[in-house]
Design goal:
Strand order of the largest sheet: 2-3-1-4-5
CATH topology of the largest domain: Alpha-Beta Plaits
Structural class: alpha+beta
Mean pLDDT: 75
Helix content: 40-55%
Largest sheet: 5 strands, antiparallel
Shape: elongated
CATH architecture of the largest domain: 2-Layer Sandwich
CATH superfamily of the largest domain: RraB-like
Oligomer: single chain
Length: about 220
């Protein structure tokens, strides 16, 4: 039995990779979409009209029309989208920060489960928070300890500058638990001029955890 994807699966994968969510289109996005669709339809009509004049009405003309319309519409849409976004206009509406974080957490947990992690048992999860000054990082660490978080560490961030505060929490890694704990700690970080910067699980004791996800700012709630 062949394991190669059929044509329908390939088309579906291609559409998904385009990252087109029509429900999130702005007015600019709709204009781009309709313009590219109109151009694609016009190009397809001219191409199929030429085929009909040459060979008469047949299946080939219909296939040429369909293929030309899809190709021109897709290419033109992507080019216009790229050009307009470079010009500073939004094609799609920005999603809620909390929703983005929840989706990212769900994807991360699925990857962990696929890697063999038991999502029904308690595991130590490290939540990272980034600060520009050591004083703010120390305030975050102090408040976390006051709230009964015992495993708290401050480490310099050589790549970004500033300091990272890792707060470890023992929990069952469900989506609700991760979202709740991340939001709780993010609010503390925001009070001290910091931002939540992802979470992860330490591979070995004492080793810096591998962050499964990194955000520029998930403390906006």
């Amino acid at each position: 039995m062949s394991t190669k994807p059929d044509i329908a699966e390939r088309i579906g994968s291609t559409i998904n990779e385009l990252d087109i969510d029509f429900s999130r289109f702005t007015m600019t996005g709709w204009c781009v979409s309709l313009a590219s669709l109109g151009a694609g339809g016009g190009a397809a009509f001219l191409a199929s009209f030429a085929m009909v004049r040459r060979n008469g009405v047949n299946l080939v003309a219909g296939m040429v029309f369909f293929a030309t319309m899809v190709a021109v519409t897709t290419v033109l849409f992507l080019v216009l989208r790229w050009a307009i976004e470079r010009a500073g206009f939004a094609v799609t509406k920005s999603q809620d920060a909390g929703m983005d974080r929840s989706h990212a957490n769900r994807d991360a947990l699925e990857r962990m489960a696929n890697a063999g992690m038991n999502r029904n048992s308690i595991v130590p999860v490290d939540f990272c928070h980034h600060f520009h000054s050591k004083a703010d990082a120390q305030k975050m660490a102090s408040e976390a300890r006051q709230q009964s978080f015992q495993a708290v560490s401050i480490e310099p961030n050589d790549a970004m500058g500033g300091y990272d505060v890792y707060v470890q929490a023992d929990l069952v890694p469900t989506l609700d638990n991760i979202n709740t704990m991340e939001g709780r700690l993010a609010k503390i970080a925001k009070q001290h001029n910091g931002v939540a910067d992802g979470w992860g699980v330490r591979q070995k004791k004492g080793i810096k955890p591998i962050l499964l996800r990194t955000l520029t700012d998930s403390s906006s709630e």
